[in-house]
Amino acid sequence: MILVLDTAPALAPAQPNTAKPTLAGRDRDGLRAALAAVGVPERQLRMRVNQLWGWIYVRGVTAFEQMSDVSKELRATLATAYSLDRLEIVEEQISVDGTRKWLLRLPIRGHEVRAPEIECVYIPEIDRGTLCISSQVGCTLTCSFCHTGTQKLVRNLEIEEIVGQILLARDRIGDWPGAVPPGDARLLPEGDRKITNIVLMGMGEPLYNFANVKAAMDVASDGEGLSVSKRRITLSTSGVVPEIPRWGAESGTMLAISLHAVRNDLRDELVPINKRYPIGELIAACRDYPGLSNARRITFEYVMLKGINDSLDDARALVRLLKNIPAKINLIPFNPWPGTRYECSEWEEIERFAAVINKAGYASPVRTPRGRDILAACGQLKSSSERLRAVDRPSQPANESGSGA
Ligand code: SAH
Ligand code: SF4
Questions:
Q1: What is the CATH number of the domain that holds 298?
Q2: Total domains, the chain
Q3: Are 362 and 397 in contact (CB under 8 A)?
Q4: Cα angle vertex 295, ends 231, 135, to 5°?
Q5: Residue 211 belongs to a domain
Q6: Domain limits for position 308
Q7: What does pTM read for this prediction?
Q8: pLDDT digits (tens, 9 = 90+) for 76-126
């Protein structure tokens, strides 16, 4: 099923072994605090933050000495106390379709004995490039069809670890002004910007890391920095209903809902958070999401599981459920992972299901799987060490709620 066709060799375990905290990925408050800590006077802080902001987020520099409008003395002070290091790449894989996946190692924090790992995926198309980023290490939720939900180690990512994924991806695909694209720049988008869209669809439930994800998306969308439009940032949630209105009001990004079932009994099993926030409450929160219009729709994700949620009755019920909500429907062919008890629906089934959705006026609802050869597709993200263990694990019995943890 899963073919390893064309993967790049693992990168050398590169990063300099420095204990200096990085400023790359920090928000303005974080930069301000860092500058104040090395004695930059209060009256200069705003101007210095703006200088650093441009160098880090417009130019993508990785050394303080490149910051030519910052005094030599301050550059030296900054270099003594801080770095501009990126997240450490453990492995980089490139799919035959141009999809790139990075396994990244995070700094050890608090009582952690092992450095946590996350994954980040870049999906190039002709007219856009989408970066799928993680918000947590693992996930506390246990959706029964999702590989990430079986991972043991869980913690929230810091702001700089979320933004850091964007910086790292821009480095690797040469997406900075004047940067040389990588030798194997095949299949990158045609336009100047190679990362035009961000989806919070990697590991984790982003609304359980609200503050850091919000601050990170503010950095990503800052017009004087990374400048990714909020209309091109999509947060995907399994349905943390109380946080949905707050996210809408405070962040202004687009929203995707991992729906996957139209009946509470089935959704309770597939997406167990449904037991706390059932479908009716979730749909009500969607109806009230700020700023909805036909040009700004909520995306409803629906994973196609053979014999589980893929009947034509389900398709008709889905259309009825979303009536009068400005919605897009995304049918996601299930991406298998070692040990899963589910199978992807047959292609004809998906087409029949899609035809019902199409007839109700939704355009091109099936999401083409990308990067399957490197296990980069939705729900397959998990650190490789965990994955190796999962290969040895027997399939879970059908009545278990899904967590292999
Ligand atoms: N935790 C958030 C965001 C990450 S998951 C959420 O659940 O929405 C991103 C999307 O991939 C979700 O819709 C998720 O349900 C889906 N997904 C998870 N595992 C999958 C799999 N094995 N195959 C296809 N889609 C999957
Ligand atoms: Fe967590 Fe989303 Fe996977 Fe569910 S689908 S376990 S919420 S990452």
A1: 3.20.20.70
A2: 2
A3: no
A4: 30
A5: yes
A6: 88-374
A7: 0.89
A8: 999 999 999 999 999 999 988 899 999 999 988 888 888 999 999 999 999
